[in-house]
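Worked example 2:
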Amino acid sequence: MVTTSIPGSTGAGKPGTPALPVRSRRMVDAPTRMFHALFALCFLGAYVTSEGESMRLLHVTLGYSMAGLLVFRVIYGLVGPRHARLSLLWRKLQTAPQWLGSVRQSLSGRAGVAVNWRQGQNLALAFAVVALLLMVVPLALSGYGSYNEWGDWLEDVHGVIGDAFLALVLAHIALIAVMSVLRHKNMAMPMVHGRTEGPGPDLVTRNHAWLAVLVLVAVLGYWSWEWQQSPKGLVSAQAVSDLLSGRESGDSD
């Protein structure tokens, strides 16, 4: 646990007095945050470049990157530190029947039954995270099959899964926003700097920044390799200009 200062706050409300210390604790380690950032960036880039042929190689590269990041997250979730284990998500999901039972009993008017809505929020968040991870598999496989021309129907399947993935991402973001309002704190910030305000010991004692750097280097190295393998690179300046202007000149070449 560390203490930081809130800019602009004062110890006794008088000008010139020291800022009040704010307790914070580390909740998310660096590799998990790096995975989250790269995963989100790759999906955003892949979705934006999904239409037309001018950026198809970039789209495919970002899709493969998502698959590779998923492999890393699964391995890290199996053999990594306790706080990063996927089993934690599984244990949360196992409480769903009990929580849903309390909701049913409460709605039926049974006295003395209280619904833990905070637990419900955590369950919804866990379901969204697990669903996003699982959906990468059919998304990547259908994309691979479409790229290798295994059948035109795979392109339609890939598009449907991509749209469903986007809907789930938006639902995930909306859930984070709602939880932030209900809990009166920014629930997204731990994925940015790894810390949350409040007393108590650090949930994550070791940040493992070196592993986060390795993940970033691996992804950048893969992108560089793919760029070198492409005769014209993954994307041209003209393709970027066409994308920003809404044109798809690559389709008419």
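The chain is about 65% helix and 5% strand. Confidence is low (pLDDT under 50) at residues 3-13, 249-253.
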